[in-house]
Model the fold of this input.
Amino acid sequence: MNKKGTFICIEGLDGSGKTTQAKLLAKKLRKSHNAIYTTEPSHGKIGTFIRNSYLYGEKRLSSVIEALLFAAERIEHVETEVLPALYQGKLVISDRYVYSSLAYQGAAGLSLEWIEKINEHALRPDLAVFIDVDPKTAIQRLKPNKSVMENMETQRKVRKIYLKFVEKGSLTRINGDQPKNEVAQELYEVVMKFLNTSR
Done:
């Protein structure tokens, strides 16, 4: 594959501020690097099904079905949104990607090796960043909402898996417990350093 652009994904717990930070980063880099923001679940056919059905409803599907749905949705997301933008030389910033499946479905008890296997055809990001916050902070931020993933034990398990990938060097960790503008600045610096050294 001869892509011209750069693919960056932003990961984190529900309530970590990753969506806000991904959008701020895309806005900041829009002019200089032709950056665009995208998200998972995407707004494609499978992503729309996920958004409109079990994920935000009262009844959850099994973890295996969730993992398979997200893996299929991820391929659609890459084929319809990410790759076309990369071929045009754009900087694609995705709010969640493969590591979300590994962390959340892994926390639900599924094998990380199996989750990686069903995502083997997913495009590998050029850079993946984990915005790390204390699970208590994440829960407090989620209180006004009815998130299906907001219980403390789940958040702790999810964070533990994310940190395993930080230790492996697959994810770059940023302290998300800092003030929002400081998180944004650190994220911007991490991305710019990567862009400048990968040329």
Observations:
- The mean pLDDT is 90.
- Helices lie at 18-33, 45-52, 63-87, 98-107, 112-118, 135-142, 152-168, 180-197.
- Strands lie at 6-12, 35-39, 91-95, 127-132, 172-175.
- Residues 6-197 form a domain with the Rossmann fold fold (CATH 3.40.50.300).
